[in-house]
Amino acid sequence: MKATSACIGGTAAYDLLREGALLAERLGPQNTPFGESQPIYLCASRFGEFYFLSRHGESGFNLAPSFVNYRANIYALKDLGVRAIVSWSETRAICHNYTIGQYVIVDDLIDETHLRPNTFFENRGLGVVRQWPVFCPSLRKAFATTLEEEGSKFAEHAIYVCIEGPRRETPAEVRKYAALGGELLGTTLAPEVFLAKELQMCYASLCYVAGYAETGSDFRPFEDGHVLDQKSQDQRTAAAVERLPRLLERLTEVLRRTPGVCHCESSMQHHIASGQIGWDWRTWFEGHGSLSGRGDSRRREGGYEFDYEYFLDQQRRRYDHERDDPDTLDQQAEDSTQS
Q1: Residue 148: in which H helix or E strand, if any?
Q2: Which segments of the chain have a pLDDT < 50?
Q3: SS3 at position 83
Q4: Of the residues 15, 99, 140, 307, which has the maximum number of CB atoms within 10 A of its CB?
Q5: pTM of the prediction?
Q6: Are 159 and 213 in contact (CB under 8 A)?
Q7: Reduced to 3 states, what is the DSSP secondary structure of residue 75?
């Protein structure tokens, strides 16, 4: 079965691949209208194949998040047939309700970046996409199922604050983020999640807590009334990272049986319906920004028919889920009555 999911990870995840924890074939960088992507790998597992892309390169942390070509990376994965992107992200906790080494399935985001291109459609009237839910609910549900089946402790909710970098945050900035409701701090989810929406892809992030955000103090963090030493912190973080291959393998299997309750694959439908763009997503970028794909209802090499079948399959899965979930049916009945 052709791979339709991908993991975008950082340096720690790439180190696992380099050390052989992930069995992979190097496909290399992919050429896109937005430049060259980072190198991509095709990984094998017991439950199927998936792609892996290292944000920061193949020789350590040689590209800071501010300078990653996010558009090329997302476009390249879409071009390979990817429909669901798993972001594996290291974070620092703003709120001390999260413990070091803990997994967190974030569900909202505050974008504090200001230098990164955040849309595929510069100088065009496209990309007006609703940002709720911010992260794909189907993928988030699959994350939760995966972590439960693997016996891993995790939190299902957190607001992620994405900062520009490459510098670290100041104590005053952390207090500002906390006042805004921010709970985890990182540097990579924006604009990735927004770009994935523009290409009608599912995207969600499984984060792990590697430390705490800047407090302006040199005192070590407390946990259960005891000082958390650096060695214990490093061991917990390493353990969280080492579980990644097993979690990705399990997730590949879980995704096959997760109800498709999201609308990610139709996020640009209003632009298509208005005639601004056609069904073939590749034509959205022809002619360096021209709308040459307008009104085209067929994709090259029969690709459109394939995508359309996927769209219908998603609708069938959503219908089956709603039919089998009494709470969903009750809510629909209540909404109908109110309207």
Answers
A1: helix 137-149
A2: 288-306, 308, 329, 332-333, 336-337, 339
A3: coil
A4: 140
A5: 0.85
A6: no
A7: helix
Closest CA to 126 of 38, 197, 25, 188: 197
* Cα–Cα–Cα angle for 287, 84, 145, rounded to 5 degrees: 170
Q: Could you give the CA distance from residue 58 to residue 63 in angstroms, rounded to a whole number?
A: 10
Rg of the chain on CA atoms, in Å = 20
Which one-letter amino acid corresponds to residue 93?
A
In contact, 109 and 162? CB cutoff 8 Å: yes
Single-letter residue type at 55: R
The residue length of the chain stands at 339
Measured CA to CA, the distance from residue 37 to residue 29 in angstroms comes to 5
User: For residue 327, what are its two tokens?
Assistant: 């709470």
Of 173, 120, 71, 114, the C-alpha closest to 283 is 120
Q: What are phi and psi of 72, to 5 degrees?
A: -65, -40
CATH 3.40.50.1580 residue window(s) in the chain: 5-256
Give the Cβ contact number of residue 229 at 10 Å: 11
Tokens (6 digits) for 100? 């070091």
Q: Compute the C-alpha angle 23/25/28, nearest 5°.
A: 135
Q: What pLDDT digit, counting tens, does each position of 290-300 carry?
A: 333 333 333 34
Q: What DSSP string runs through 242-297?
A: HTHHHHHHHHHHHHHTS-----GGGTTHHHHHTTSS-S-GGGGGTTTT--TTTT--
Calpha distance 50→77 (Å, rounded): 11
Residue 78's CB is within 10 A of a number of other CB atoms, namely 21
Q: 133, 86, 94, 88: which is closest to 112 by C-alpha?
A: 94
> What pairs with residue 88 in β-bridges?
206
Interior angle at CA 290, CA 288 and CA 292, nearest 5: 115
Closest by CA position to 5, among listed 254, 304, 261, 319: 254
- Give the pLDDT score at 214: 95
